[in-house]
């Protein structure tokens, strides 16, 4: 392998990195008045990266530390689409707040670069580099609204707890390296296949999983999620809930399925434990919430629990279900947060569930979009969410995880309560004062696409399911 070949394989990531540097130079010269221009350029950079991500076949670079395969292409598609949507939402949000700054699209590009590196990492060093590049940018983005105490608090909590998770991850990786003598995923798998799973390696696996599941806010490493979701600017919350979650989950899939296929019994117990706790907390803790963003935080914890159930199955069918679930979850949550961003009254953002009272009479289109996505997230037929959960539960049942699958169905029924409560508030409560009409073309487009997806996707799931199946197959070669 030559350096030229490696750089060609890395071209989509180079486009993101060089694009971020160019945008930073433009912003440094022109100042904050270039914020809107830089947002448009950032979208073009992400689109260019997405295009080159799908050109060519499977390949690897830097002695196998970075791989491009069907799994990477599928997850990058979801991550990059989510990033484009969030950049557009952020540009409109900070224009409305009169606080637009040129650093925003640059930071989002750098975070997206980290996510893109994460999903292609096939070495623990590459894994950690991509994860920290994403995390450092996200810490700043969470606290981006520096005039808000809540935003500063969110960024600080995220940074402190994120540093703790990074330490746990590094300790786990050091134990894995100490007992296997290699950092390569394939090398770890070979050592385990030939020599078994020593106790020290199990400890390393536990610490590694603990550090990784923090990034997807699964229980018991969820404590940062409600405060960060509530305190961060709405488009940044959307970014954390979609692109960041998908990239982090894709990293977990690759970091477990490729190095540890012969340690299924050891890591399956850990994943099942985290999955059950996440589904339970997500179902019950959200019931008493009054802030829509905090409710969505607990909702995300629950949904990560369902996705982890597919991973716990340890089968190709389970991984296909997880990937399908992540695509559904990302697009639906983009629509939800687009609707949340449209919740403005007299020029000020409002986030209370009670502010949605009677929305069907004051803004019927917005209420319909909100309803469609709430019902889809609850998993009610005939919306897209029912298929996503069905694939997960079917994979769990085929892996003989009957009790956990039944528990997942039960928590899904409980969780439907707080989604239906929002629908009830919008359609049956006395109307609150109407929201402002100016929601912006980008926010309106994202909400419309997500609504159509929730309503119509159940009619034709073949192509996405086929792509998810091909991506899952790449982890079992």
Provide structural commentary.
The model has no long low-confidence stretch (mean pLDDT 89). The chain has 477 residues and is mostly helical. The chain has helices at 3-9, 11-30, 35-53, 70-96, 103-120, 124-142, 149-180, 185-195, 199-215, 225-231, 234-257, 264-284, 292-313, 316-341, 359-362, 364-378, 384-398, 402-428, 441-456, 462-474, and strands spanning 59-61, 66-68, 344-345, 348-349. Helix content is 75%, strand content 2%. A two-stranded antiparallel sheet has the order 1-2. Strands 3-4 form a two-stranded antiparallel sheet. A hairpin with a 4-residue loop joins strand 1 (59-61) and strand 2 (66-68).
Structural class: mainly alpha
Fraction of helical residues:
over 70%
In terms of per-residue confidence, which ranges show pLDDT below 50 for 5 or more consecutive residues? none
Largest sheet data: 2 strands, antiparallel
**What does the average pLDDT come to?**
89
Widest sheet, order of strands = 1-2
Radius of gyration: 21 Å
Order of helices and strands: HHHEEHHHHHHHHHHHEEHHHHHH
Tell me the total number of β-strands: 4
- The tally of helices reads 20
The proportion of residues in beta strands is under 5%
Shape: globular
CA(first)-CA(last) distance:
21 Å
Topology:
Blueprint: H1 3-9, H2 11-30, H3 35-53, E1 59-61, E2 66-68, H4 70-96, H5 103-120, H6 124-142, H7 149-180, H8 185-195, H9 199-215, H10 225-231, H11 234-257, H12 264-284, H13 292-313, H14 316-341, E3 344-345, E4 348-349, H15 359-362, H16 364-378, H17 384-398, H18 402-428, H19 441-456, H20 462-474
């Amino acid at each position: 392998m030559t350096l030229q070949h490696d750089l060609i394989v890395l071209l989509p990531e180079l486009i993101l990195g060089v694009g971020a540097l160019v945008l930073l130079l433009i912003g440094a010269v022109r100042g904050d008045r270039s914020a809107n221009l830089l947002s448009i350029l950032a979208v073009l950079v992400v689109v260019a990266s997405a295009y080159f991500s799908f050109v060519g076949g499977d390949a690897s670079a830097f002695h196998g530390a970075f791989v491009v395969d069907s799994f990477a292409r599928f997850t990058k598609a979801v991550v990059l689409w989510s990033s484009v949507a969030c950049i557009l939402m952020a540009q409109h949000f900070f224009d409305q707040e009169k606080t637009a700054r040129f650093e925003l699209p640059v930071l989002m590009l750098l975070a997206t670069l980290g996510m893109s590196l994460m999903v292609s990492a096939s070495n623990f060093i590459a894994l950690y580099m991509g994860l920290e590049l994403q995390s450092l940018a996200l810490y700043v983005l969470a606290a981006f609204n520096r005039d808000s105490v809540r935003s500063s608090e969110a960024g600080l909590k995220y940074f402190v707890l994120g540093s703790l998770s990074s330490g746990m991850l590094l300790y786990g990786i050091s134990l894995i390296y100490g007992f296997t003598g290699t950092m390569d995923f394939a090398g770890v798998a070979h050592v385990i296949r030939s020599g078994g799973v020593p106790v020290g390696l199990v400890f390393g696996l536990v610490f590694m999983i603990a550090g990784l599941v923090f990034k997807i806010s699964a229980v018991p490493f969820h404590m940062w999620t409600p405060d960060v979701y509530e305190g961060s600017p709405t488009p940044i919350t959307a970014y954390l809930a979609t692109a960041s979650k998908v990239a982090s989950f894709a990293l977990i899939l690759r970091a477990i399925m490729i190095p540890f296929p012969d340690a299924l019994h050891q890591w399956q117990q850990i994943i099942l434990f985290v999955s059950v706790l996440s589904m339970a907390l997500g179902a019950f803790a959200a019931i008493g919430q009054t802030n829509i963003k905090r409710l969505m935080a607990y909702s995300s914890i629950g949904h990560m629990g369902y996705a982890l159930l597919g991973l716990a199955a340890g089968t190709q069918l389970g991984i296909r279900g997880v990937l399908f679930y992540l695509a559904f979850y990302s697009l639906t949550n983009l629509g939800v947060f687009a609707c949340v961003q449209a919740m403005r009254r007299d020029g000020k953002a409002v986030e209370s569930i009670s502010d949605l009272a009677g929305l069907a009479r004051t803004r019927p289109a917005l209420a319909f979009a909100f309803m469609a996505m709430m019902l889809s997230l609850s998993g009610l037929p005939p919306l897209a969410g029912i298929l996503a959960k069905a694939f997960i539960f079917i994979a769990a049942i085929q892996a003989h995880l009957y009790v956990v699958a039944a528990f997942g169905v039960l928590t899904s029924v409980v969780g439907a309560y707080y989604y239906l409560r929002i629908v009830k508030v919008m359609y049956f409560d006395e109307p609150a004062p109407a929201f402002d009409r100016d929601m912006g073309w980008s926010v309106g487009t994202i909400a419309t696409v997500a609504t159509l997806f929730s309503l119509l996707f159940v009619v034709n799931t073949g192509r996405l399911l086929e792509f998810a199946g091909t991506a899952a197959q790449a982890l079992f070669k």
